[in-house]
């Protein structure tokens, strides 16, 4: 995703939309998913049969664990409950929807809980509630590309469909607890990144001070300051500041949408009035002032006046009225999935895991508040037998019928239940929402909460991690919790954001497949929660008919071509659509990065590798892999060749750099394209072998692998990889030259020394702008086991961490809570377990001088790995085989590759003492 996002820490540039299609996924056999307990616990607490084989002082224990566990019906246990409990998020404020709001969710419904004035707000969303209209009526014709001629049709320019506020997910409603607003405008602190953050009134001026680390900032919002920008089009700020200070000014709507943002500006040394022109036709509700310290030393801005001016006169904003911060404490209990607020308006909020209901315990009065949009009809509101409800109709387009949803609020003493039902689930959304809310509010809360906590107990029992680094440990648990809040099997795939801080989310809040949509689900595989990736995988599988149509329309190729942006509820047959371009949105140039198709398919192959299941491979993964590989094969057949007989993989576009260039000068041999073409051709060939079909195609795919050129290099004595042929190194938004290492998986620990040296040099010298590669870069470093990989990851994530545990793209951005950053759990896991190419490595990027242990991280081949490192020595290594087959392991004590035959349900325990290589 490009770096165009409101961000007081720096500006960002444009992006485009995305997709998902709704259908049931194939069933999984429970025999493929045994929940293995820690073997150490099992041997201590059960009568499992242990077969101990000793060879040259080597201990190899093979335990018949699976059958024994089933027979005994042993209960699941959280591996490291103390570590999980310690990761709970605690704060003393809740008043910033970005920095402090708490995320609660059950995988389908999710919400942001935050304070507003003296009350609390629960802003609720549901994954399938979308305004899924696509208005292509004014779009140019779809781009067509002549591969061999390096020609494309002239369809660049304004894509009208992208300029509409839809398609986008919709926030459903808000629940207000207590009094939400201040009676008069007042300034409240919303950011405090320094060790000292102050707002003082001195000598008739408001003085904002900060000190601490370099580039830290603090901020204050004044609300409510409602005014129309048409009447007051000029904002005048008079200030002076220290030489190391910068300032930033925001004008926001009442719901937090950005109306105007100044960007960071060096503060004038002498008081000066700076004028800003505001866009017309907006209704403002908030003003925000920020102060930044460039070097970490005490910096201050002295604001003498803030004034709005226009034909309606002049409005002076009171700089003296600083609101008293309510004394509260908050806790987000990850283990039990409950948000607690104490002090002020006290409440406990849960998104019940077993039903689409938010359950609230609070003495405060609750009210149901709609979220109004100018381009939607006003919602119906009413009350049925004491249950308040609203119903929102979302219009359709010529090819999509629209939808509706209902939110119902029922109260019973201090208990409140809020149900959300969409028309995809119900023919009468109001009646069903009212009934569900009433039944939940009137039920005994004790069993409801017990059942809710049991679901989360099972979730946390699947895997665990406890390491000698509090920050990384907390990131692992917190982001896995956030991911579970927005995804589970059978629901619509979540878009770019958890919750919606704005009614017009950036980039349509959708699914963008040049990394954003895929990255959101990276944590599913290694953390042993493969099921959480189901919504994304169905999104890609469901889009396949349209991708096949686009391959033919755009490139005259067989197979499947996935464009940059996908949307939910796409009709599968484009030919049946009446809209312009058959309702297809493939905005040039970014839609025509051909590597994105393989990137989109990658997660489906990972699903099979991490959780082998023939039915899934046959019905879901292979059809997509086959068609994308066929597209690449057909594309390559039309490519030009170079002097050495290799093809020139062109034309394509580097994501998101250069665009289309004259004579395709920088549209050839994109590094990420080469990586994903290789990945997809090999995966499709291997899948065909497993299924025993398409032998001719598999041979063709393997032959095509030999035709691909090398990665493009810079023109230096010691070259590095660049993103496209004949381009200089640049400041990347997406770190394209790192992609062959990760996520492309073509350069690995087992590559040649020359390849590893080239890509290590590339990673060390690669420059990126700090936005869209915050996980790609550290995960690539971990894959090559670079010694500082763990520090690099920690440093990059801490720079982006918010007090509420979420991690954004860049410090202080105002876009929302990015779901793609929930993949931090995968990045942390990579330090402890990797299995690229089916070879398991334990502690591959974790320093010897730091302790760590983990239970049941999942490896390719369906292996659940448990290990511990203590005082620089790996003291425990247990590997459970869920489906049987060969276990390939890089022996952590000898550094040699070993192979073990396994049966379903077997667990291998290897001890460190004189460890041996079994069956070289």
The geometry reads as: globular
Mind telling me the C-alpha Rg?
A: 28 Å
Which percent bin holds the helix content? Answer: 10-25%
> How many distinct beta strands?
47
* Percent of sequence in beta strands: 25-35%
Low-confidence stretches: 1-75, 914-920
Mean pLDDT: 89
Lateral arrangement of strands in the main beta sheet: 3-24-25-26-27-32-31-30-29
Major sheet attributes: 9 strands, antiparallel
Question: What is the number of helical segments per DSSP (H or I, 4+ residues)?
Answer: 19
Structural class: alpha+beta
Instruction: Please give the alpha-carbon distance between the first and last residues.
Output: 44 Å
Q: What does this molecule look like?
A:
This protein is α+β, with helices and mostly antiparallel strands and 920 residues long. It has 19 helices and 47 strands. The strands form 11 sheets. A 9-stranded antiparallel β-sheet has the order 3-24-25-26-27-32-31-30-29. A 7-stranded antiparallel β-sheet has the order 1-2-47-44-43-42-33. Strand 11 (196-202) and strand 12 form a beta hairpin. Helix 12 runs antiparallel to helix 13 and helix 17 (776-783) runs antiparallel to helix 18 (789-800). The chain is globular.
